[in-house]
Structures are given as C-alpha cells and as structure tokens.
Hints:
The protein is an alpha/beta fold. Helices cover about 40% and strands about 20% of the residues. It contains 16 helices and 21 strands. The chain has a 9-stranded mixed beta sheet with strand order 10-11-9-8-7-6-5-2-14, sandwiched between helices. A 3-stranded antiparallel beta sheet has the order 15-16-17, with no helix packed on it. About 45% of the residues are buried.
Amino acid sequence: MRSDLNIRYGEERLPRYTSYPTAPHFSCSISQQTYRQWLASVSQEQTVSLYLHIPFCRSMCWYCGCNTTIARRNEPIAEYLAEMRREIDMVASHVVRPLRINHIHFGGGTPTIVTPSQFAELMNILRQKFTLRSDAEVAVEVDPRTLTREMILELGASGVTRASLGVQSFDPAVQQAINRIQSFKDTATATEQLRAAGVRGINFDLIYGLPRQTVASCFDTARKCLWLRPDRLSVFGYAHVPTFKKHQRKIDEAALPDGANRHLQANMIAYSLTAAGYRQIGLDHFAFPGDSLATAQAAGNLHRNFQGYTTDTSDVLIGFGASAIGRFDQGYVQNDAATRSYCTQIGRGDLATEKGYALTADDRLRADIIERIMCDFRVDLQQVCARHGTTPATTLQSATRLHGLTADGVVNLDGAVLSIRDDARHLVRSVASAFDAYIGTSGPVYSRAV
C-alpha cells in the first residue's frame, strides 16, 4: 500500500460504523410516545439483547470517549441504580412478555463500580421481567484496578459469561500520560480470578495512538497480553476529540503519534497477535480460530453493533440507563445522556427518551452494505440490493467516493462484487463511507480512519 494513500485516506475522520446512520444524526423527532410504540411492537418471536449503562468511574482516564462521571461516594451510584431498576420495570410493562433475551451487556463507565449485592439485584430484576435463554451471553466491562474479590465471585454467581478488561497499554510512560496507572499484576490477578470464578470468556481492550506511545511499547504490551492468553482482544485507535471531551485537553497533543506511526503501531499489535495464533476479525478484533467470532466470520455471519464485532443476531436491542441506545425494526432510540436528567425523568414515571432516528428504506440498504464491508471486507451488491428491492447500478450511482478508491487500487469491483485489497484492509472505514449518505454532515466528531 502506497504511503500517500495512507495519508490521504488514513487522516480522514470517519465513523466506526457500529450503527448506520451514526449517533450524531439522531434527533429529538423520536419521542417517548414513539419509543412506547416501538416497544409495544416487539413480538414474542423476536430475540432481544439488553444494554445497561453504568456512567460512573472512580477516576477519569484522559483518553476516555465514554459517557461517564467521577463518583467518589457510593450514594449517587445507589440512587442511579434505583432509577435504572424503575426503568427496567417501566419498559417491561410496555412489551409483550416474556421477551427472550439472547445477550446482556453491562457497559460504562465502570459497571463493576457497583457493589456485589447491587449487581445481583440488577440481574434478578432482569430475570424477573424477561426470559433469559439458557445460552444467553452476559458480558461486563471491567476495570482491573478497582475490581474486588467479592465482585468477581458475584459475577461468577450471577452467570456472567464474558468480561472485557480495560488494558490500553502497559507502558508506564503512556499510563502516566493518560492518567491510568495499571500494573500488569492487577490485570493478571483479575484475569486469573475471573476464570476461577467461572467467567469463561476474557477480553482485553487495547488502544494505539496514545500520547508517548511507540511501536516498541505496543509490541511490549501485546507480548505481555499473550502471557495471559485472553480469548479475544479489541484494538482501537485513540480518538482525540477535545472539543467534545474536555478532559482530553489534559493530553499533550505534541506527544501524540502522527498518522504514519499510528499505522505502524496498529500493524505491530496485529502482527504480534496473529503470529501467536489469533485470527484478525474485521478491522480491530482478534480471537482464536475456534472462537465463535472467528467461526462467524468464516461463515459470513459476523455482525457489528455498538460494542463492535459480535455474534449477537438479536432482532432488537433495548438500552437502559443514561445515554443508552436501543435498536428496533423502526429505528434507534437514545436516553438522555445527563445522569441527573435521566434520573429525574424516570423518577416521575416518564421514559428518558431524548432522541433517536426513524430508518428509511434507503438507510436499511446502506446499513446492510456497510455492515458487510466492515465485517467481510467485501460485499455482493447484487445479493444485498435484491433483498432491498433495488439494483447495484442504482446504488453505485450515489457512491461517488468509491471512484477515487477504485482508481487508487484500494478496492476492486468485479461485476457487482466489491472487495478491498488485502493490504488496504486498514482503510475499510474509508470504503464503508462511500455508501454513507450522510458523510461530511456531522462535523469533526469522529476518529481518524487509521
């Protein structure tokens, strides 16, 4: 891949395409009444996933792009959880019960900031209001620095099947620069104890492109991760958007690697992991060949949602908590992002719907194409367009950004089959963006393409 193409496309700020259209295009046109109607339309035959957002941390990591606040006391967390339980009860009253639950994901913030008994209460109310399938995956995001032995035992007892541990980097200089000091021992202890408690799946989250990060330190971090043999790893590029995340202003921009070094860092991590037997899944996930992610990719059944690449095939996603997003046949709905406002609305018996998006037929077509590009690095436009009652010629006519990518050799179009060249797969977001009807209308809210 020519270096000028990495500069031309890699420096673009583009969505990660965990949804389409992406969240910046949501609007207040989706109301509480709309959400009630969408909930009531969910049938008992449909499978459902749940997302619970815990927007609290003990300290702020300066690189963070999540919706979270610092909680030094436990009382605000307890108050928030009381409202979340009320929201679960309220939502359950609007659906045809019992809905079958395929997947539950606790995200944050730091979900394990809650006490073991509070976590057990949340799981109990979910089991009371919904029907959890026997093979349902229950995933929790974990901060190893604050994870207690008691919480680990509760995660195992509550049926958690997967834990995602935030690692980011083991380089002390990088940790100092991002305000996240986390020893290898902390991570190793959490990993060992989670497995001993019965949590079968262990994921590590890594980031490249951080301040003071180097190719050598990325190699060292990957090497240390390999000692612990996590089942999966997610490797994301740091998104520096200090205009929207004010705490990122604490990061020294002069210490951030340039685009060329970001690319080298990502390649070093990918090389280290694949050389050790992991298979690269899509753009930024890694798993062993026998893992369900790898199996799904090989079968062409890989999907993408707000947590990244997934095997979750649920028809519906219901979100609970401040800023949580739900996905229905009709479109997306998102709760108020402000914790206090969310609690106030739920407390008075209202749903906390702030905004959303009603999908059009064209949106569904483009979402299908983009998902296949992101998951498979190729798409059979004839096949996808037939499902949506249109033709590849009509679809390609509007994909004007594709012309340059084709001319530059990034993609190949063989009849109606579009594929990304093997050495250009890191530019997959650029290719996906060619089918994004809204690209360029959101402002600089996205991360670099590489």
